Amino acid sequence: MSITTRAAVVESGGAPFTLSDVQLDEPGPHEAVVRMVATGLCHTDLGVASGGLPFPLPGVLGHEGAGVVEAVGSDVTGLAPGDHVVLSFTSCGDCRNCRGGHPAYCATWLPLNLIGGRRADGSSTISRDGEPLGGHFFGQSSFAERALVDERSLVKVDPDVPLESIAPLGCGVQTGVGAVWNVLKPTTGSAVVVLGAGAVGLSAVMAAALTPATTIVAVDRVAERLSLAKELGATHTVNASQTDLAEALAEITGGQGADGVVETTGNVAVLRQGVDALAARGTLVVVGAPPFGTEVALDVNGMLGGKQVVGLTLGDAETQTFIPALVRLVKEGRLPLHRLISTYPFADIDQAVRDMGAGKAIKPVLTF
User: What gap in Å lies between CA 266 and CA 330, rounded to an integer?
Assistant: First the structure.
């Protein structure tokens, strides 16, 4: 029997979120029904809602959910009603990358998570008045009071940690943390530069502060965010609206350049500056996503000193081990994620969108 729930529906590209009653399909063998407690709002949600990606609309987005399991499918293992879960991306579990511990690079990642709007078999998870809606967003579509969630999107977490404090772990936070821990892997004395002090960038700053890196530079154009970055572990900040970035980074690194750079802005001019600021054998991680088809020019000879440019999806994280580790760090106060979060009632989702767009909220979290 289907379940009726309230969801925030995007009717068409560029339309606002509107609350509407929708019906969830019965959970399949590898799915669960989750009562949502909180869900983060991410720029990816806004990009899809604007019509920037070919996700089927009308549809239900949301991909940083956290809640309590209400029912599980017949073949779900390791989870039971009452368990607290953080929701993240889904994956097939069978391709080479999934089996190799890199599910963020699943062979079917795009249709399963970002643009398909359906289960892998083409069936719909959400409908309204008998008409299918776009759903299954990151295997969850968590902008709803209840969500039908793919088993591989579910991560069981410590029930003693408030769910509204850890909802963003499923996407933005694990992306920023994973860029540092899983790709850059700073060694003793490393210099790490984070371009952009939004939710992903500040997560990278917090992650770098938990490594042997001794120089951590946050770059942004908003003074308040740079002040927060300093409080979260940045040793230096650069206001790119007031200072020449290349000169500032050269001075901070003693002319050696950065060992690692995390680029979160999606601005290709900033990306190029980051590459140029790398030390020999340094690595830049591309996290920010400009529109599809965007290209960037690089100085080929400048790359010959062993520089690397690495693209990244969702921190290259294996969620079942990575997210519980982050939850523990939040619980112990070593990952002060609460400094990024502003909470909003679910009904105020459009206000949260406006505040995020205006830079008033770094990481809006909707509560139910």
Answer: 27
Q: What stretches of 50-171 show up as alpha helix (H) in DSSP?
A: 96-99, 109
Place of tokens 């004395």: 189
Which phi and psi angles does 103 have, rounded to 5°? -65, -20
Smallest Cα–Cα separation from 169: which of 183, 153, 185? 153
Global pTM reads 0.96
Give the C-alpha separation, 96 to 101, whole Å.
Answer: 9
b vs e for 129-146, b when ≥16 Cβ sit within 10 Å of the residue's Cβ? Answer: eeebbbbbbbbbbbbbbb
Structure tokens at 50: 């604007």
263/259 Cα distance (integer angstroms): 13
**Which pLDDT value is given to residue 291?**
83
Q: Which one-letter amino acid corresponds to residue 128?
A: R
pLDDT tens column, 122-162 = 999 999 999 999 999 999 999 999 999 999 999 999 999 99
CB 56: neighbour CB atoms within 10 A?
A: 14
Q: How many CB atoms lie within 10 A of CB 303?
A: 13
> At which residue do the structure tokens 């599910």 appear?
103
Q: Is the CB of residue 43 less than 8 Å from the CB of residue 175?
A: no
ω into 58 cis (within 30 of 0): yes
Is the CB of residue 264 less than 8 Å from the CB of residue 362?
Answer: no
337: phi then psi, degrees, rounded to nearest 5? -65, -25
Cα gap 80→34, rounded to integer Å: 11
The residues, ordered by sequence, that sit 6+ positions from 224 with a Cβ below 8 Å of its Cβ are none
pLDDT tens string 275-289: 999 999 999 999 998
DSSP for residue 346: G
Cβ-proximal residues to 323 (8 Å cutoff; 6+ apart), any chain? 86, 88, 155, 157, 169, 170, 174, 317
CA–CA separation, 229 vs 163, rounded Å? 24
